[in-house]
Amino acid sequence: MTRLDRVPRVGSRWRGVRVGVVAGAAVLVLAGTGVVFGLPSASAATVDTSASYVFVNRHSGKAMDVYDWSTAENAPVNQWARNDLAVQQWQFVDAGGGFYKVRSRHSGKVLELPSAADGTQLVQSTDRGSATQQFRLVDSAGGFVRFVNRQSSKVIDVWEWSTADGGRLAGYADLDGANQQWQLIRLGGTTPTTPGGTTVPTPPTGTPPPAYPQPGRVSGDVGVHDPTVVNRPDGTYLVAHTGDNIALKTSTDRVTFRNAGMVFPAGAPWTTTYTGGARNLWAPDLSYRNGRYYLYYSASTFGSNRSAIFLATSTTGASGSWTNEGLVVESRTSDNFNAIDPNLIVDDQGRWWLSFGSFWSGIKMIQIDPATGRRLGTAMHSLANYGPGIEAPVMVKRGAWYYLYVSFDRCCQGANSTYRIMVGRSASPTGPFVDRAGRDMLSGGGTQILASHGGINGPGHQAVLADSDGDYLFYHYYANNGAALLGINRIGYDAAAWPYVY
């Protein structure tokens, strides 16, 4: 048999495989490798119907994932960076005759290939016992398997050999290509090795939880956007958030919140150069240091990087008690960064740092003079970037690590917002920051810890509160009616010191 290398064909996809016939037997040649395998393999893959699995594609390294945490009928199932959350967990249900239904731990729905046509989108749907919802497993080399649909005999395929998050999964003729091969990773069980001996680690069972949590109970005045929070010396809580002249709220118990007025009830005329005359000021950052509250906040207009970050201080935090300490950093339309969304951290050496940034070239950091609270020197560090949209940095130190939390994708579109909270970590406040998989956050890396689910739409612009009973994640999300609301969840850390919310 003559091997055919990968070639493009008009009106078809790039394929790295070709099936031929030798001595009456079907064989497979992987283009560019010269490796020949029989098809099908002599032994059938076995599964544990009591276990949960993550399915990782051999070609892309991405996991099979219910797109956008949907629970809807016929919602697409695509690929996404592995996070082992419920949206990527699957259970096998025996359907008889060597076939299985594959059920999502997140939605309770099963995988379906509704049509026999090549390119049919893989979806989730209510279990009807249909042959379109049943699959058998066929072994490929190296411990991988293919999912063969009972109705169409098509296999689950990463369409167009995508390596992107959100890349389509679809039905296609069984060619045993790497983009049709899946590693079954049994959570809490033995993880098979990939060719070359690399083992895909299985996180400790029980962390993170199997599904994103609902926000904890809050009540009172909880309409907020871009919250930040501090503990006050008397044990109560002070929250600041985006609003006219910066809005304030207080709570005695981290559950019930009350309106506490504005930071600047008489206005902030020094900001209007950046706001076009509007009173709405954005994305504050609160901290309490040496008997004084520090408030960094943003002045801008939507979609523009003609922006500025200012500082105000107060000894009480009360409305009207704040002193304008002046401009800290600004950006102009000729700059490749956007000076909004500030966050202050003091490192282990006592140095003050301010991270900030939104879209453009991503998250930046400058050093701050502790004596004035304003910029020290001219150096600017780049920390993270993500092309579709990144903003709202928050950095905290826990144990050996500096954790950088950011929000990916789009805010401010009500229930259509796509915000999601990501995290990476570094041994230094200036980076490099990497995610759980070792990807640099400057190259789009980030481990997702909270995203849309159920009626929680676009959670993001987070803050981290170190309280007496542990760490808490504060954020806003959108209800189905578009209202921006306060969300609070606890933060846990797994055995590898990666955070998760519960």
Describe the 3D structure:
The protein has 502 residues and is mainly beta. The chain folds into 3 domains: 1-39, no CATH class; 44-186, Trefoil (Acidic Fibroblast Growth Factor, subunit A); 219-501, 5 Propeller (Tachylectin-2, Chain A), CATH 2.115.10.20. 1% of the residues lie in helices and 42% in strands. It contains 1 helix and 37 strands. It has one helix at 272-275, and strands spanning 17-22, 25-30, 36-38, 53-57, 63-66, 77-80, 90-96, 99-104, 110-112, 123-125, 135-139, 145-149, 155-158, 169-172, 182-186, 219-220, 228-231, 237-241, 243-244, 247-251, 256-262, 280-289, 292-299, 307-314, 323-331, 343-346, 352-356, 363-368, 381-384, 390-398, 401-408, 420-426, 447-450, 457-467, 470-478, 484-493, 499-501. The strands form 12 sheets. The protein has a 5-stranded mixed beta sheet with strand order 16-21-20-18-17, with no helix packed on it. Strands 19-22-23-24-25 form a 5-stranded antiparallel beta sheet. The N and C termini lie far apart (57 Å).
Q: How many strand units? A: 37
**What gap, in angstroms, lies between the N and C termini?**
57 Å
Poorly predicted residue ranges: 1-44, 188-206
CATH homologous superfamily of the largest domain - what is it? Glycosyl hydrolase domain, family 43
Mean pLDDT: 87
Total discrete domains:
3
Major β-sheet, in short? 5 strands, mixed
| Level-2 CATH architecture of the largest domain | 5 Propeller
Strand neighbour order, sheet with most strands = 16-21-20-18-17
Helix content: under 10%
The helix-and-strand class reads mainly beta
Radius of gyration: 26 Å
Give the class-level CATH name of the largest domain: Mainly Beta
